[in-house]
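Possible regression after last week's pipeline update?

I re-ran a chain I had predicted before the update to compare outputs. Posting the input and the new output here so someone can diff against the archived version. Not blocking, just want to make sure nothing changed silently.
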Amino acid sequence: MQKVHIDCASCDARSISFLKFCTPEQVELISKAKSCVHYKKGQVIFYEDNIAQGVYCLSGGVVKLVKSSEDGREQIIRFSQRGDFLGYRALIAEEPFVASAQCVEDTVACFIPRETFMTVLAQNPKINSEMMKSLCHELGIADEKIASLAHKTVRERLAETLLLLHQTFQEDAKGDEDETMIHIVLPREDIANIVGTATETLIRLLSEFNKENLIELKGKRIRLIDQRKLERIASMD
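New output (post-update):
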């Protein structure tokens, strides 16, 4: 970890985060109170069951939210990237973090202390409204995930996961001619974790998808060849 200095007023992530609704005075307040850290790939920003002392705004990079089960296995809940806020649900609810935040790639996260964040939240109803929308969206995704695990086959869930990863990280494809590529490289174990299956099963199904010309495997990278058919397999059509 390495401390860095980022001015909120000139930060690119501000335009796509809750901070875009702040007044100039609130931006200055946050900028003075926050601390920014550069995390290396694999480092943890905060741990599950710790008490939230503030919130984190991602200025760059990708983070996975991971929850541990009683038998020690991990479940990836979701991914967060540039412009996303982490920890605000736990802070507002005055509850421990339900998951750990681990960096998938080098990441810069700015920590905003509880008092500063709650002051801005109390002053700015627009931020309150946008956070409520975000929380409802996350709840909807969680409900869909539960239904998917309960009713879909592993093959259907894999197709759904590949499409979701492609859509989630499509922003990284700007300026890239190959927009069919999934623009994040994840270990096969992580993809299996998201799908909810064993790594061996995941590898076998990826190979089948490759033979069926649904995807193309380029080392650890995955390119979607037939998105329409993947949508049909995922029962999303």
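Follow-up from reviewer: compared with the archived run. Helices lie at 24-33, 88-93, 114-123, 125-151, 154-168, 188-195, 199-211, 227-233. Marking as no regression found.
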